[in-house]
Structures are given as C-alpha cells and as structure tokens.
Amino acid sequence: MATEPAWLSRFRAQAPAEDVAAVWVASLNEEEQTLAETDAGAARARLRVALLDSGCPEVKADAANGYKYIGAVLRAADTALGIKHKRSDGSVPSTAGPSGAGAPAVGRQVFPAEGRPGTLGIWWSDFKAACRIEQLVAQGVTHRLNVAAECVGKFPEEKEGKGDTCVLKTVHVPMRDLFGEDCDDEVIAEWVAQLGQALDILREWKKEGAVVNINCQMGKNRSGAAVAIWMCRERGWGLMEAVLKLREITALACGNPHIIKALTIFLDEPAAEVPLNPAGDGGGWICISPPGSPRAGSPDPDSNQPCENIAQAAFEKLAALEEKQEEESEKLPEDFGGLFEDIADA
C-alpha cells in the first residue's frame, strides 16, 4: 500500500495553507524541482490535480464549501513558487476592482507578457477600456478579442471605417448577452461553440507571442468566461479555482449562472457547481449587463428597442396589477358593520 505524501497528510489535518505548501515544495524530487523552476504554473497545476485526484473525504468536503481551503493552499503554493498575480503597476490587488458603467476605464492584467512566440499575455477589460488604444499599446497589448455581440463594429476606428488600419489586430466572437428565460439549451450550446472559437483564436495568437486584451460590454461575464477557458485548458487551473481568481481581479465577475453552465459543459465538467458571488446576507449576487441606454434622435430605429421592450413589459405588469386591485376593491362591501356583529363588546 502506497504511503500517503506528507503534504497530503498535512492537508487532511487542515494545517495552515502555508504549511501544506511548504511541505509539498520540500517533497519535490529533482525532476519536479526543475519543472517548478522553469514552469511554476505547471508545477502548481500538478499539485491541484494531485489534490483533486486523491479522493480523500477532506477534498470532497472542501468542494462542497466552494474549494476555499484548496484555494488557500494553491495560493500559498503560488507564493512558495514565486508566482505573483500583480496589477500593471506591480502591486498585488487586495480587493477586486469594479468594471462596467461608471467604473474607471482600465484593463487588468491576468497573465503578464513574456514577449516571445509560444507565450500569451492576457489583459481583461470592459468595452470602454478596450476602446482606449493608446492605453492598451502602453500596456504592451498587440491584439484585441471582443466577445460582446453588441460591440461588434462599435470600436471608434471601426465606426470611422478604419478598422483594417488599426494598430491592434481585433477579432470578434459575437456572444449574445442573455439571461433568464431567454437562455435555453440552444443559446447555451451557442455559447459553448463560441467559447471554443475564442480558445482557438487565443491559441493561434500564442504562437505569435501576442498580448491580448479580452473584453465584453461590462468586462465580467462573457469576457470572464473567455479568460477562464484559457486558464483551465492552457494553464492548468480548475474551473472553481479560475472563477474565484477572476472574482479577486474584478468585482462580481462570472455572475451569470447560464454562462457558467456553458463553461462547465465546454470544460466537460457538467456536474461542477460554481456558487454565485457571495452576498452579505448569505445569498449570492447575479450580475448581468444592463440594456443599452436609449438615445434621443438616434438614426438607428432599433437602438432604443431593448429599453422599450423592458419598459413595455413593466407597464403591462403594473397595469394588470392595478386592474386586479380595482376589481378586488369593487367586491368589498360598502357597509363594514356586519364584520363586527359577532364580536363581543369589550
């Protein structure tokens, strides 16, 4: 019978995450040490796989708890291996940053650029930040991948008919932004196929040693899914681990459960359960893109349609409620005296 590794015993004893990571690093053989020095991410991925494949009940219990302890151990392993997840200014983020309407139009670095073929640097942003070419170029970005259907053709240079001359190579994977009843199996299957397209594009750009900025409208769900598939398929991250990391980078990221479902299908983990962004009351946050704001006098007759549809639906519901209340009030007796006949005098 094989002896249980010392680091796994420490894990099962719920030792501090730093202790587990330290014992694991100390247990690496010569080949594993070489891998840790040349490709720390791959070495860390092996630790994750070893944990998940161990089959010990503590792993299953932690899975039910959102992989919090495993996540802490892997982050401790990052530190032990010298893997640092930094902002563009070199600082380690302490809290997730906002994105979308009203937030600063900035991208966030997920994987630093190495500047050589066979590597891929990744930045992640909302659409507004993706439009700031000078800022992207200053960050070293060479390519843009837009995964928001409503943003296709909306980059400033595209609207001016200069898309082909832009310094940044831009490719679109037009994922629709849907939620609720609109997200049937057909839509999810469409997203799964589009995630595959995004992964193929990123793999091609890796051959060039590109640095890509991935965006959607708000920089949370569709673009987060595109980043997550790269993390899982190319960098050895687990789905839960990747989602939690992205939520550390951008507030309320990966908040559309339907897109998360598409992710689990794409990654062949249909039974995986990814919790919502935790809320203070013990529940969870769902975060989706708002409809486009109407523009008075817009030359596009359909530009206001999303808001008009929502407004019309709300109006119809309110009208129906008001009508129901009026009908109920008409049924009430004018004289309420009979209601109190059987009540004895105090």
UniProtKB/TrEMBL annotation:
Using the UniProt annotation, give all residue ranges assigned to the region (Disordered): 86-108, 289-308, 322-346
- Biased composition (Low complexity) is annotated at 90-107
Q: Tyrosine specific protein phosphatases domain: which residues?
A: 193-248
Q: Which superkingdom?
A: Eukaryota
- Name of this protein: Tyrosine specific protein phosphatases domain-containing protein
Q: Which organism is it from?
A: Polarella glacialis (Dinoflagellate)
